[in-house]
Design brief:
binds zinc ion; three-stranded mixed sheet; 129 residues; 5 strands; two-stranded antiparallel ribbon; alpha+beta
């Protein structure tokens, strides 16, 4: 929050609040609906602009679930996780993995300097199996 400091206007605050309230990564459409329900007036352009700004400053993450829609999620300290996405009901679960081996393997095979990564798993949740 502090990273974008005093430029935090009311709409920006509300968008950040929306992402805090949602328990899963959310689309612009869902964020827009949340704001409308709370009678907060923010136009779509500002929502897009705010989300892009917040993504750049690293306080939220932009995630692609392969359906062409971008989703946004708040970044919590030390809460690096991945997503299990149900292709049937579109539910999203978070999962933490021990990935030391995986990251070592990347280092071994390439001199690429990895700054961040994301992993999404697609399949069927318990209810849909
Ligand atoms: Zn990871
Ligand atoms: Zn499901």
């Amino acid at each position: 929050m502090k990273k974008i400091g005093t430029r935090l206007t009311k709409p920006r605050k509300s968008i950040f609040q929306a992402l805090s309230d949602f328990s899963k990564p959310s689309t612009v459409k869902e964020i827009n609906l949340y704001l409308q329900n709370k009678k907060i007036k923010v136009n779509l352009t500002s929502i897009y602009r705010t989300l892009s700004l917040m993504t750049k400053s690293g306080i939220i993450n932009e995630i692609e679930f392969g359906d062409g829609k971008k989703r946004y999620e708040k970044v919590e300290d030390n809460s690096h996780h991945h997503h299990l996405i149900c292709e049937n009901c579109k539910s999203v679960e978070d999962i933490s993995l021990k990935e030391t081996t995986l990251l070592k393997e990347v280092k071994k095979q390439s001199s690429f300097k990895v700054k961040k990564h994301s992993l999404e798993f697609f399949g069927l949740c318990q209810n849909c199996q």
